[in-house]
Design goal:
This protein has 303 residues and is an alpha/beta fold. Helices cover 43% and strands 16% of the residues. The longest helix has 28 residues.
Amino acid sequence: MGGRRFLKALAVTGLAFAACFIVILGLLVLGERGELTLGGGRVALVEVQGLIVSAEQVVRELEEHLEDPAIRAVVVRVETPGGVVGPSQEIHDAIARVRAKPKPVVVSMGAVAASGGYYLAVAANHIVANPGTLTGSIGVLMQLAEVEGLLRKVGIHFEVIKAGRHKDVGNFARPMTPEERAILQGLLDDMYDQFVTAVATDRQLPRATVLELADGRVYSGRRAKELGLVDSLGGLEEAVRTAGRLAGIPGKPELVRPRRPLLTDLADWLGSRTPLGALLPGRSPLPTWPLLGATKLPLYLME
């Protein structure tokens, strides 16, 4: 008798678990309004944070979402004052590839999305900024130290042996020659032209208009919208809703956040609670300049 009751209870429990499984499966397969989505109501989140010195991680995530049929759109959250030219262009091009899939890409600007951060943003279908976001800063900057006088005072002299007349352009141990200055200015002018061209092409603005705006200054999000540099005002939630709408996702889309290593979460936790946060890479909205001599030609897309 007791055995029958046990089997009956076990059968009821099994049916209950099966019913729960069916309900959960139905929620995963069906959208909020009952349409069959097969996981296709998802919007992926990609984060660009801190000084842009490498594009590898961001580009890899974008490529994964490009190939994932369950991801219908991508939101790129930008929190950066800018960075090196090449990586900024790599992320820009990766966003353009996702957009051409076609999968809508919406950029969500945080506190700062300037220079290199704006460069990559223009590749998106839609840019959302907060009214107080600092953005724009369309320009290219190179800063080179010249400390010959200081080195002479402390008795340090550099001997440079080179093959190639301009191989040591930017040498901090001597003054720059007029010819070298002209070479570097030409290099920056070329980078600047590429930046202006990207903004004019992607934002569909007249080149003359972009040149008027591209004097290196930053704009608030509200002013950027008035000038046509961004499309709408709002935060991350607004960007997710916009991405869902552009992708034709009914209801509220499911947001797929990036997988973060445990050490990254630990760094965030320490950074929010201790002064060590100021020392953690990528946690400050302010530019972090390379140490003297660490970079041959530090080309930065930042103010």
